[in-house]
């Protein structure tokens, strides 16, 4: 699609909420609130809301087949990916991939690690680090 002066322009400014499938809402709340330590904002019939920084995560029991699919990968920023990953392991979380350098840029490295939530959704940890010179 080609932009023209006749078409409206969107002014989106960020992500406010992400929905994650929760087949067992109590189990999902336990994981996101108690295991990950995210603030539980509220709980309603078939859904709950937790806060990750400025983004709400809606844990939702699928209301129709088209909503019953794994969620997108949520990437959580952290300041020490190694200690956060070790904490996940100590908590018995299903870890998928230990921290690794995914990208190098100038004198910095972008580190990633992956794990699963209680509902089978893949989640990630991220950290920018000063790399070797």
Question: Can you give a write-up of this model?
Answer:
This protein is α/β, with parallel strands linked by helices and 133 residues long. It has helices spanning 25-35, 81-90, and strands spanning 17-21, 39-44, 47-52, 55-60, 74-77, 95-105, 108-116, 122-130. It starts with 16 loop residues before the first strand and ends with a strand.
Write the layout of secondary structure elements.
Elements: E1 17-21, H1 25-35, E2 39-44, E3 47-52, E4 55-60, E5 74-77, H2 81-90, E6 95-105, E7 108-116, E8 122-130
Parallel strand pairs: 1-4, 5-8
Antiparallel strand pairs: 2-3, 3-4, 6-7, 7-8
Describe the structure concisely.
The protein has helices at 25-35, 81-90, and strands spanning 17-21, 39-44, 47-52, 55-60, 74-77, 95-105, 108-116, 122-130. The termini are far apart. It is 16% helix and 42% strand.
Task: Report the order of strands and helices.
Answer: EHEEEEHEEE
Please give the share of residues in helix: 10-25%
Number of helices: 2
Approximately how much beta-strand content do the residues carry? 35-45%
Oligomer: single chain
What structural class results from the helix and strand content? alpha/beta
Low-confidence stretches: none
Mean pLDDT: 93
Distance between the termini: 44 Å
Biggest sheet strand order reads 1-4-3-2
Categorize the overall geometry.
flat
Give the beta-strand count: 8
- Biggest sheet descriptor: 4 strands, mixed
Radius of gyration based on Cα positions: 18 Å
């Amino acid at each position: 699609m080609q932009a023209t002066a006749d078409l409206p322009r969107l002014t989106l400014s960020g992500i406010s909420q992400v929905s994650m499938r929760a087949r067992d809402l109590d189990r999902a709340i336990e994981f996101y609130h108690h295991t990950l330590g995210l603030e539980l904002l509220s709980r309603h019939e078939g859904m709950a809301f937790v806060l990750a920084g400025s983004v709400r995560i809606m844990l939702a029991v699928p209301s129709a087949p088209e909503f019953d699919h794994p969620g997108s990968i949520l990437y959580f920023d952290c300041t020490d990916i190694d200690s956060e990953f070790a904490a996940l392991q100590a908590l018995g979380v299903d870890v998928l991939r230990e921290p690794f350098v995914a990208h190098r840029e100038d004198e910095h490295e972008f580190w990633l690690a992956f794990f699963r939530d209680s509902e089978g959704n893949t989640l990630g940890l991220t950290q920018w680090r000063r790399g070797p010179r």
